Amino acid sequence: MDSEQPVCPACGQPVETVVRRHKTLGAWVPVWEQGPCHNPKCEKSPDLEAEEPETTEAAPTQR
């Protein structure tokens, strides 16, 4: 069996495969997708995103 391990598009480190599901014709179908990157130096790492404070500005309200 020739299976290729997915890699992070940002840093190239191997990532795990995760199983998600979606509904098709009334049945839940598994979909294997690329998991999150756990490299602490990677820009797409969820660990790095959690450490950065959010800089959201309040949107002006319209009346």
Reconstruct the topology from this structure:
Layout: E1 17-24, E2 27-34, H1 46-51
Antiparallel strand pairs: 1-2
Report on the architecture of this protein.
The protein has one helix and two strands; from the N terminus they run E-E-H. By secondary structure, the chain is mainly β. The protein has one domain. It has a two-stranded antiparallel sheet. Strand 1 and strand 2 form a beta hairpin. The longest helix has 6 residues.
Order of helices and strands: EEH
The biggest beta sheet, please?
Answer: 2 strands, antiparallel
Number of domains: 1
Global structural class: mainly beta
Unreliably modeled segments: none
Q: Counting H and I runs of at least 4 residues, what is the number of helices?
A: 1
If you compute it from the alpha carbons, what radius of gyration comes out, rounded to the nearest whole angstrom?
Answer: 18 Å
Which descriptor suits the 3D outline?
flat
User: Using DSSP, what is the number of strands?
Assistant: 2
The pLDDT mean sits at 77
Query: Helix share of residues?
Result: under 10%
Distance between the amino and carboxyl termini = 62 Å
Strand order of the largest sheet: 1-2
Strand-residue fraction? 25-35%
